[in-house]
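Supplementary notes (optional reading)

For those who missed the lab, this is the record we used. Protein: FAD synthase. Length: 369 residues.
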Amino acid sequence: MLACGGSRISHQNLGSRFCSTGIFHLSSFTVKPPSSAAATVAAIVDNNSHNPRFVSSSSLQSKSAGDIPFPPVSFSQREDEHEKPSEALSSVAGGTVALGKFDALHIGHRELAIQASKVGTPYLLSFVGMAEVLGWDPRPPVVAQCDRERVLSSWAPYCGNVAPKEFQVQFMSVRHLSPRQFVEKLARELGVCGVVAGENYRFGYKAAGDASELVRLCDEFGMGAYIINSVMDRHQDARNMNRLDLKDRGQVSSTRVRQALAEGDMKYVSELLGRPHCLLLTIKDWESLTSTSSTQRMSAPRSSLLNLPPKDGFYENCSLLFGEQNAVTCRVSIDTSHIHLEMDRVDFCDNDYSQKSQVLGIEFGELKS
C-alpha cells in the first residue's frame, strides 16, 4: 500500500464568499486521525485561537465571484472527446479524492474540492454508467461534458490555484462492493491518501455505509478522512423544495439546481452553482442566421443542446460565448422545439465555419415575466 504523508492545512484568507449559503459549521462528525503515522489528518488553526481543531474548509473565507478570474471559454466540439474513465494507479495515486455524484458542480461540490486541495492533490471521484445499470431514464446533464474542465478551472483560485481533476470509475465495477471493499479499493488499488465526503454521503452495496463508517474504514486502511457539513440553501424555508424527501434538510443539491432551472429562476440557479448557468449548443451551419443593419438573429433546434436548458421563455441580459472572443450580450427565447438568439450585429458569424460544427455557450440572465 502506498505510504501517504500527512500535511498541515495552512490558514488562508481568500476574501468574502459570493453566496452566504456556502459557509459551513463545525462538522458534526469528529474526524479520527488514522492509526498509521504515515497518514495523519491535518488540522486547521481557528481564527480566534492558536489551538488546532477540526473544522470544515468553508469556515475559511473565499473570494467573491467578482474577484475570481474566469478562464477563457474553450469548448470541446465533441462529447466523446471527454476523458474516458480510467482506473490506472498513476492517475490518482497519492491524491485526495472528494466523493459524490458531481452532476451540477454546484457550490457544495466546490467545498468538497476546497477541502481536498488543503490536504493533497484534489480529485473529484464519481461513477459513470449509473443510469444504465440502475435503469434510470436518460436526462441531459446540468453541465455539458465538454464544459466540465472549464468549470473546474474556475475553481482553481479557491483551491490553492490548483484546478481539481475528475476521476471516473465505471459504476458496474464497484456496484456490488461492500463498504469495506470499496475503501480497500481506494487505498490499495488506486493508492488514494485521503478522502473527503459530505455528512450525508452513503457508499457501498445498497448504500450500506455512512460517513462515520467511512472514517472508521479509512483509519483501518491508513487514509485520512474528512467529513464536512452540507452547504445549506438559504432559500429553503421560502421555497420548501424537496419537502417530501426526508433526507433533504435544505442542503444545496443537483436536484435543487434542476428544479430552479425548471422554474426559470436564473438568479437562484447562479447562487446554487456559484456561477451563471452555461447552456451549450452545437451549430452545424449558419443557414438560420438573419441580419439587419443593427441586429442578428439565429435559431437552433433543441436537439443541438448539449445540456439542460432553463424553462421555456424569454431571457434578457444573456451572454453569448464563442471561442476566445469577448462575450456578446444577447436575448434568448426558448420554446418547445427551438432556441432563438438575438444580438447586436457582431463579426463572429462572418468566418467560414461550413466545414465543421461549432459550439456556442449561453450564460443566462433573468427570465422576463
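If you only remember one thing from this example: The longest helix spans residues 107-119.
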